[in-house]
Amino acid sequence: MTRIGIIGSQGRMGQALQDAIADAGHEYAGGADQGDDPRELSSKADLLVDFSAPGALEANLAAAREAGIPIVIGTTGLEDTHHALIGDAASDIAVLQTGNTSLGVTLLAHLVEQAASKLGPDWDIEIVEMHHRMKVDAPSGTALLLGEAAAKGRSIDLSANSERGRDGHTGKRAEGAIGFAALRGGTVAGDHSVIFAGSEERITLTHNAENRMIFARGAVKAGAWLIGRRAGRYTMTDVLGL
Ligand SMILES: NC(=O)C1=CN([C@@H]2O[C@H](COP(=O)(O)OP(=O)(O)OC[C@H]3O[C@@H](n4cnc5c(N)ncnc54)[C@H](OP(=O)(O)O)[C@@H]3O)[C@@H](O)[C@H]2O)C=CC1
Ligand SMILES: O=C(O)C1=N[C@H](C(=O)O)C[C@H](O)C1
């Protein structure tokens, strides 16, 4: 039985994770929230699962590292500096970071990469996401993950080829750009569509999350898979064998 500690335990995902831990027959080791020291939690857990906020990441990685235990990071809104911290921690412990822990989105990313590779640069790619009114970051971590998959399929760099937040007289679409649009409202758990727009035809690949349990189950599965792995940075593709 694995003892799993949750960072952000009082949040929407934290609550879903507690259910998923119980459903999978693991032990809930406790939570660390705003103002808590994550080292207290890591000292009594076999694994940390972090769905909190980017500002908490550095201390969470340090706590996992000090205890020598793996960590799953589901928090989104991460910047390059956060990714550098994750890369550094992965030299000591097993770390899995992803914008989406669901099976459906992991598979969708593969389909997007394939489609982007087969269709070529004259098909414009737009990524549209919708989330609940409480979400604080945009575009979503999943939209960025899907953008990375499309960019990989096209062998281009996403950061140099993104169009985000169009407003006003934007000029025409940049050639080869990957566009992002973020909608917010209601209680939507997470909808993502990747649109390939060609001349006189369109292909749309869509994933709809009906609730947060798909993310929570995926995170618990990923965590159990990480236990006993050598230090390194892993993905949901590794966990699901896709
Ligand atoms: N990878 C994936 O599959 C998924 C990722 N997410 C991501 O997970 C994160 C959390 O989402 P959600 O549960 O909806 O958000 P919530 O706001 O409901 O929960 C976040 C929790 O983290 C707490 N928190 C904030 N700062 C810290 C800190 N420094 N240390 C410890 N705890 C802290 C918050 O406390 P307080 O309210 O007091 O600030 C809150 O309890 C988001 O980044 C979201 O995008 C969500 C779903 C799936
Ligand atoms: O904040 C959320 O709710 C979600 N966040 C993740 C993201 O940013 O992609 C995953 C999921 O879509 C729900």
UniProtKB/TrEMBL annotation:
- What biological-process terms (Gene Ontology) are attached? diaminopimelate biosynthetic process; lysine biosynthetic process via diaminopimelate
SUPFAM superfamilies on file? Glyceraldehyde-3-phosphate dehydrogenase-like, C-terminal domain, NAD(P)-binding Rossmann-fold domains
- Residues that hold (S)-2,3,4,5-tetrahydrodipicolinate according to the record: H132, G141, T142
Is Lyase one of the keywords? Answer: no
GO annotations of cellular component type: cytosol
Q: What is said about its interaction partners and assembly?
A: Homotetramer.
| Role of this protein | Catalyzes the conversion of 4-hydroxy-tetrahydrodipicolinate (HTPA) to tetrahydrodipicolinate.
This chain's protein is named 4-hydroxy-tetrahydrodipicolinate reductase
The gene name reads dapB
